[in-house]
TrEMBL record, chain A:
PANTHER family: LACTATE UTILIZATION PROTEIN C
Domain LUD: 97-195
Species for this entry: Solicola gregarius
A Pfam match: LUD_dom
Membrane spanning stretches: none
Protein name: LUD domain-containing protein
TrEMBL record, chain B:
Residues annotated as domain LUD: 1-222
Keyword 4Fe-4S set for record: yes
Region of interest: Disordered: 375-394
Domain 4Fe-4S ferredoxin-type, chain residue ranges per copy: 238-307
Sequence ranges of Low complexity compositional bias: 375-388
One Pfam family per UniProt: LUD_dom
Full protein name: Lactate utilization protein
PROSITE patterns, A to Z: 4FE4S_FER_1 (PS00198)
PANTHER family assigned to the protein according to its UniProt record, in alphabetical order: LACTATE UTILIZATION PROTEIN B
Keywords, in A-Z order: 4Fe-4S, Electron transport, Iron, Iron-sulfur, Metal-binding, Repeat, Transport
GO molecular function, one term: metal ion binding
GO biological process, one term: lactate metabolic process
TrEMBL record, chain C:
Name of the featured protein: (Fe-S)-binding protein
Domain (Cysteine-rich): residue spans on this chain: 3-80, 134-218
Pfam families: CCG (PF02754)
Taxonomic lineage of the native organism: Bacteria, Bacillati, Actinomycetota, Actinomycetes, Propionibacteriales
InterPro entries (UniProt xref): Cys_rich_dom (IPR004017)
Cellular component terms per the entry's GO annotation: cytosol
Highest rank taxon of the organism: Bacteria
PANTHER family associated with the record: LACTATE UTILIZATION PROTEIN A (PTHR30296:SF0), UNCHARACTERIZED PROTEIN YKGE (PTHR30296)
Length: 211, 417, 249
């Protein structure tokens, strides 16, 4: 196919003969700059029908345990630094095996407040892409210092060499009569455990004032 | 991408691209592939090419699944099954799912949540089993070799993660220079397409990641008319399109005629310019597309990447007309336009034409004898091409005296009225 | 300031009361307006149908007729849009650099009526009187090509006796679209029928707009539907005073 390559590239050059190539990258507009980034993050994640649990560092294990259904099968990535009782570590489970797992607990690379997004780069504390995809419940631990204000703040902190998964709420579709249905193929329940100095609180849709 | 372990293929056209994908499938002896919703694979009719090679292609986006099971065509860029209601979808699922895999549950209702759950069960079997996936890409990044897929349901993640082999077909216009430049696009696309701050899932990958996801990754860089569009200095802006579908959603013509009327995978205002730009003029259906617009400009107003669609439409109309300038028998429209051009070339000729129209006006009112609200005489129903107007709309009869005749007679209204 | 009236071919031949109203209105405001008789058409019907060569003679008569005027006023958003945004294209096609230069002079001096009144003359209250219930349709080219914004509303709100009611889905196209109205008549009529329904829903006596072509289309439907709603150009409303109610309804 090398001849197709040179043919296409020469067509591109001919087509652009009249154009002065703009060498400078297109600058993107500034993002949002909320005063309280963590609160904005918690609000926006909850806005997408995910549950947000805020807690202090010493409460993480307990809050994660609360987020799991009693007796369910839980997988964790090999590098997770949270104790999850009765969980087993992913050592290359097949897709079929993962399909029999109920929940997964991971860390993340960062959180984006404005868009309510968590970004995974699938390092050892987050595991392979498949483990956060096939099980129906995903508990993601986000540390306060990982949360940035908006997308422009996130881009320079991401390594494009890694696979990246941006998650904004549970999977959803509006394909039938434009009526939104949450939970299609990805995990139908997403619980974000946000770790900062504050005491344990919970935000979820319908319970915004419950804190 | 090559440095990161991906195999890059170049495809001049649909046939090139389909050949690559069929070859990859044959190498791995697969008889089925799972697919992420992708406009470009519809553009090249990959499913048809795979079927010819005895390979089943399973669409995994819910709407694409509905379209595929219904032996139907997509009618919208973002929600391809928008033309189907819940009862039809239930019927399609019950009738067809068992023929191609896990049957729909017999107690299936027409609740969207129940239908979505049926699709989840039906497709999960295919995701877990599939050894090869085919995707498109929303963006490709030149400096890092990264591909990006933006989606909502998670079917994209399934296809991009679980199979051993992944082939991604990427139009060459999808390439952005740097990773940092994804920023504004990732913010624009969900806001303009679904109105969300961010879509549920965005996947980015760069070649092969050892131990994670497909271990064989192919990328097909597709031209298929894109360099033709690029060579058109007015039309090339259409290649900026990020397929958000905002223009469809505001287009009054799309709203009335629906997506199928455009006869292409790219419907609506963007389709009306993209199809002729990719294919060139000459085909009657393609040539009609630039005229499928009242030039109201609502599309340009909402376009997040500022494609001046009305400007390109008018430009393409000129191309359609120019391609037929040497016809031995010109269309009646061309004759009329030449006549108008002649009359407008000189005020004296126009005055004469208006005198004729004033006389015609007097004649026309005799047929009609009706009056418009406000009292002005209406012309009767016109024969011939004029019937296109008077079939549903009254037409005021031409006045006895044109403005310029009045101006001349009254010296600009200063002599007498 | 030398001001010229561009009547537009449609108004000249079909709606002469509109340019007459512009004359009355501007003279009342103390502006002397000329009507250069060499004018014909802005060329838009040809350009928008794809016949660029056929538009060249029209653009030539335009620049010849209006050379030397400080402002060219037209009671049509669409024709003003054509002069401002399409004449350069036609001139370039003609291959005549003199025509291109001439277009550079006339294009930016062309104003749609409401722009001229509000921006150039600097008035919103033109002393008009029109004691009726009115709704306004912002035509697409006024709205999106020229960006006249709220200028027509400013003018209408200042008219004594006038009750201005909001038109639902006002910014949606009426479906006229020049030759679109004939080439895709069914779609055009479907769009127009929705527009007419919105107009009827307002219970207005009069639908007003800045383009007679769109009004001919919507008015044609309103008339066929026996709605009783009449259509009037903005100029004809602004031209009326208590002493001179030129048009009675």
């Amino acid at each position: 196919m090398s001849d197709a390559r040179s043919e296409i590239l020469s067509r591109v050059r001919d087509a652009l003969a009249d154009v002065d190539p703009a060498a400078l990258p297109v600058e993107s507009p500034p993002g949002a700059a909320p005063t309280d980034v963590l609160t904005r993050f918690a609000e926006r994640v909850a806005d997408y029908r995910a549950e947000v649990v805020r807690c202090s560092p010493d409460e993480v294990a307990a809050r994660v345990a609360d987020s799991l259904v009693e007796g369910s099968r839980v997988v964790v990535p090999p590098g997770l630094d949270v104790d999850v009782a009765n969980a087993f570590v992913d050592e290359g489970l097949s897709a079929a095996e993962l399909d029999r797992v109920d929940a997964v607990v991971t860390a993340c690379r960062l959180g984006i407040a404005e868009t309510g997004t968590i970004v995974l780069d699938h390092e050892a504390d987050q595991g392979r892409r498949a483990i956060t995809l096939v099980p129906d419940r995903h508990i993601c631990v986000v540390r306060a210092e990982q949360v940035v204000a908006d997308v422009p703040d996130a881009m320079p902190r991401l390594d494009p060499g890694r696979p990246l998964t941006w998650i904004s709420g549970p999977s959803a579709t509006s394909d039938i009569e434009l009526e939104r249905v949450e939970g299609v193929h990805g995990p139908r329940t997403l619980i974000v455990v946000l770790v900062d100095g504050n005491q344990s609180t919970s935000t979820s849709v319908g319970d915004r004032d419950g804190s | 991408m090559t440095a990161r372990g991906a195999v890059v293929h170049w495809a001049r056209d649909a046939a090139d691209a389909n050949r690559v994908i069929v070859d990859v499938a044959r190498t791995h002896a697969v008889d089925e592939v799972v697919k992420v919703k992708s406009m470009v694979t519809q553009e090249i009719d990959l499913n048809g090419a795979l079927a010819d090679a005895g390979i089943a292609a399973w669409e995994t986006d819910l709407a694409e699944l509905i379209v595929q099971l219904g032996d139907d065509l997509p009618s919208h860029i973002l929600v391809p099954a928008i033309h189907r209601n819940r009862a039809e979808i239930r019927e399609i699922f019950l009738r067809r799912m068992h023929e191609v895999g896990r049957p729909a549950p017999t107690e299936l209702t027409d609740e969207p949540v129940v239908l979505a759950a049926a699709a989840r069960e039906h497709l999960r079997e295919k995701f877990l089993r599939a050894r090869m996936a085919v995707s498109g890409a929303n963006f490709a990044v030149a400096d890092t070799g990264t591909l990006v897929v933006v989606e909502s349901e998670g079917n994209g993640r399934m296809c991009l993660t679980l199979p051993e082999v992944l082939v991604s077909v990427v139009g060459i216009e999808k390439v952005v220079p740097t990773f940092a430049e994804l920023d504004s696009l990732l913010r624009l696309l969900p806001r303009s397409s679904t109105g969300e701050r961010m879509n549920p899932y965005t996947s980015m990958w760069t070649g092969v990641t050892p131990g994670d996801g497909p271990q064989e990754v192919h990328v097909v860089l597709l031209d298929n008319g894109r360099t033709r569009a690029l060579a058109d200095e007015v039309g090339r802006q259409a290649l900026r399109c990020i397929r958000c579908s905002a223009c469809l959603n505001v287009c009054p013509v799309y709203e009335r005629v629906g997506g199928h009327a455009y006869g292409s995978v790219y419907p609506g205002p963007i389709g009306a310019i993209l199809n002729p730009l990719l294919k060139g003029t000459g085909d009657p259906q393609t040539d009609s597309l630039p005229y499928a617009s009242s030039l109201c400009g609502a599309c340009f107003e909402v376009c997040p990447v500022r494609i001046d669609i009305p400007e390109v439409l008018v430009h393409l109309r000129t191309q359609v007309v120019d391609a037929r300038r040497d016809d031995s028998v010109p269309k009646p429209e061309a004759v009329a336009m030449r006549a108008a051009g002649y009359a407008f070339g000189n005020a004296r000729r126009l005055r004469w034409a208006e005198r004729v129209s004033g006389l015609a006006g007097r004649a026309l009112t005799r047929f009609g004898r009706s009056r418009l609200p406000g009292g002005r005489a209406a012309a009767g129903r016109l024969p011939g091409p004029g019937a296109a107007w008077t079939g549903a709309r009254d037409l005021p009869a031409p006045p006895r005296e044109s403005f310029r005749a009045w101006w001349r007679r009254t010296k600009g209204g200063r002599v007498d009225e | 300031m030398r001001v010229a009236l561009m009547a537009t071919c449609v108004n000249d031949a079909m709606f002469p009361e509109t340019p007459k109203a512009v004359l009355r209105l501007l003279r009342r405001l103390g502006i002397d307006v000329d009507f250069p008789e060499a004018q014909t058409c802005c060329g838009q019907p040809m350009v928008n149908t794809g016949y660029l060569d056929e538009a060249v003679p029209a653009v030539r008569t335009y620049v010849d007729a209006f050379a030397g005027y400080d402002a060219i006023v037209t009671p049509s958003g669409s024709c003003a849009g054509s002069a401002r945004h399409q004449h350069t294209l036609v001139a370039r096609r003609s291959g005549d650099p003199a025509l291109e230069r001439a277009v550079e002079q006339t294009s930016p001096r062309t104003y749609e009526l409401s722009e001229f009144l509000v921006d150039v003359v600097g008035v919103a209250d033109v002393g008009a009187y029109f004691p009726h219930r009115v709704t306004y349709h912002p035509t697409c080219h006024s709205l999106r090509m020229l960006g006249v914004g709220d200028r027509p509303y400013q003018l209408l709100r200042a008219v004594r006796g006038l009750t201005l009611v909001d038109l639902p889905a006002a910014s949606e196209c009426c479906g006229f679209g020049g030759t679109f109205a004939m080439k895709n008549a069914d779609t055009s009529v479907a769009m127009g029928a929705d527009k007419a329904r919105h107009v009827r829903d307002t219970s207005a006596e009069v639908l007003v707009a800045g383009d007679n072509s769109c009004l001919m289309h919507i008015g044609g439907l309103l008339s066929r539907e026996r709605s009783g709603v009449r259509v009037m150009h903005l100029a004809e409303i602004l031209a009326q005073t208590e002493d001179e109610p030129a048009v009675r309804i």
